[in-house]
Specification:
By secondary structure, this protein is an alpha/beta fold. The chain is built from 6 helices and 10 strands, in the order E-E-E-H-E-H-H-E-H-E-E-E-E-H-E-H. The radius of gyration is 19 Å and the shape is globular. The N and C termini lie far apart (42 Å).
């Protein structure tokens, strides 16, 4: 079975400039994603899709392939990442004459994931009857109780009002927050559909402390703090 991991890392980032190569605990952020993918033995290739020469150089130094550069029109702030997925898979189809059996996306912005989180996505995908496996974490807010949206008259209302007499949050439908830890996807599905939820989607639940998604400076500081906590815990265990 041919399993290829892709890491999508464009050069521009308004929330945190230079985010994808910013040093985190002594390594460029992208290095964490590459190393975590390298630890999954079932993955045959690790390919970085980027429009940045600097990111490409660092990715190659870390052991990933960068066999193509992403076109600028697929690296804008408003470009759906789905199109970058299709571009990368199109390159592979042209290069090796067919699509891989499984595409794994390993986002740069979730450096606290463990290789086992990627493994679990693959395990769930390989059970069959699914187009994609995504990662989720327990939601801190429930749209039926404590998430509101702006109304046209300036007031606010619940995102998802309940109409069946439920008055306790514990009795409301269980909801999860999507996490950017990993995706395992059918490449044919990506090439023939236009968005993720057009297909059959299953999930792997990730602990909140491993699901941090770095989008801005505060997220980065939280990741640094959690990384430091992990290092202290490991060091303490080594000395016990």
């Amino acid at each position: 079975m041919n399993i290829i991991a892709f890491i999508f890392a464009r050069g521009g980032s308004k929330g945190l400039p230079g985010k994808n190569i910013r040093p985190l605990a002594g390594k460029p952020l992208i290095a964490w994603a590459i190393e975590q993918a390298q630890a999954v033995k079932r993955i045959d290739r690790i390919i970085v899709s980027t429009d940045s020469d600097e990111i490409a150089t660092i990715a190659r130094t870390c052991g990933a392939e960068v066999p193509f550069m992403r076109p600028a029109e697929l690296a804008r702030d408003d470009t759906p990442e789905w199109l970058a997925w299709r571009h990368a898979l199109g390159f592979i189809r042209n290069q090796q004459g067919c699509l891989p059996d499984v595409m794994v996306s390993v986002p740069v912005t979730a450096p606290l994931r463990l290789p086992v989180d990627i493994e679990r996505c693959l395990d769930e995908y390989l059970k069959g009857d699914v187009d994609a496996v995504i990662t989720v974490t327990e939601a801190h807010h429930n749209p039926c109780f404590n998430m509101v949206k702006q109304n046209s008259d300036g007031t606010v209302g619940l995102v998802m009002p309940l109409t069946n007499g439920i008055s306790r949050r514990q009795d409301a439908p269980i909801v999860y927050a999507m996490a950017t830890v990993a995706y395992a996807v059918n490449p044919v599905f990506v090439m023939t559909q236009t968005e993720l939820f057009a297909g059959r989607i299953k999930t792997v639940q990730i602990p909140a402390e491993r699901a941090i998604d770095i989008d801005n400076g505060l997220d980065f500081q939280i990741a640094e703090f959690l990384m430091a906590q992990q290092k202290r815990a490991v060091s303490q265990n080594d000395h016990d």
